[in-house]
Amino acid sequence: MHRIALWMLCSFSGLLLQNVTLRAAEPEPQPRPHIEIRGIYGGAPTHLLEQNRSLPELGVNAIFMGSGSLTAERIAQLKRQGAQVFAEFNTLHVAGYLKEHPDAAPIGVDGKVSPPPHGWQGICPTHPGYRKYRMEEFRRVLKEYEIDGIWLDYHHSHASWERAEPDMPDTCFCERCLKQYQQDTKTSLPEAPTAELSQLLLGEQKAKWTQWRCDVFTDWVREFHSIIEETRPKALLGTFHCPWTDTEFNGALKNKLAIDLKAQAQYIDVFSIMPYHARFNHPEDPAWISRQTAWLGKYLGIKGQPGERHKIWPIVQLSDWGEAVPVKQVQPVLDHGTRLPATGVMVFRWGSLHPQTDKVEAMIEYYRAIQP
Ligand SMILES: [Zn+2]
């Protein structure tokens, strides 16, 4: 008995000592009044609330959840605790749609259906039925729920990029896309098999083709924005987007993913860049987060000052995905995630993070410390 008690005491003081050492290495976080959003992505911390810990006690003031898991009751409960509630909305990744509408599958350079890279199924961006389906669902979510904003997710072309080595096939060369490209850009393509036309579009006509694809995706954003204006004009329109700069991976942001951030900025209020440092091959370098955020601010002219229309609220990785995020990184990740021009932050992702209670407590400690 005594031995066990002594061992427990030693281990306990060892833990305390380790904790003291860890803390000494990092400066104590100070209030960061420029940070208006301290969020959790992927659901509400229900089990903590059930332990009678309120959201303000956790330092959390925003919850981001999938639009499919919204209920009026859940929203009301979170709002009673002073939190804002934001919905995540799947734009071009409802793979189930293809079952009954195989003509919405993205077509590759060879004229055949492009298989989903690492299982990430995209949809042809000019399929009128699919677009209508998503717009109606977007409208329904905004009409039905008292949300403070809605965030686009997977608003890019058929690709797998949330990893160290992306796989981004060139698409979509379906007849519909080729026809619309010719109409919109007043170009006429020769009579030739798709395999030849795709080479032309990725060769001689690459600049025009790339811009046209970007414009198609931007036009979706324009329509999403107009639906917000009609249904819930105070709600913010956000987007979860690829964290690369305009030159990384040979300009893939535009020429593979079809994301034209500057054009989308006409309609988007909040840019939630996704610098998952561990997942994206920077497991030892949380400073990568603030470098990417700083680049985005410069690129879009966002400084993080009060009254600016555009905001940057990064979503940062605390849960283990691909690479583990150790507890000692919680503070540096949140530190880099809350540096200007960022004016808000949220952590990815509650479903897999919440059982890792040491990291959750470190997050709470940080959020409480930076509250103004
Ligand atoms: Zn297409």
Provide structural commentary.
InterPro entries: Divisome_Glycosyl_Hydrolase, GH. By secondary structure, the chain is an alpha/beta fold. Helices cover 43% and strands 11% of the residues. Strands 7-6-5-4-3-2-1-9-8 form a 9-stranded parallel beta sheet. The longest helix is centred in the middle third of the chain and has 26 residues, at 206-231. The radius of gyration is 23 Å and the shape is globular. The N and C termini lie far apart (48 Å). Mean pLDDT is 94; it is low at 1-6 and 12-21. The structure holds zinc ion. Zinc ion binds at residues 107, 124, 126, 172, 174, 176-177.
Structure characteristics:
single chain; 372 residues; alpha/beta; TIM Barrel; 9-stranded parallel beta sheet; 15 helices; globular; binds zinc ion; GH; signal
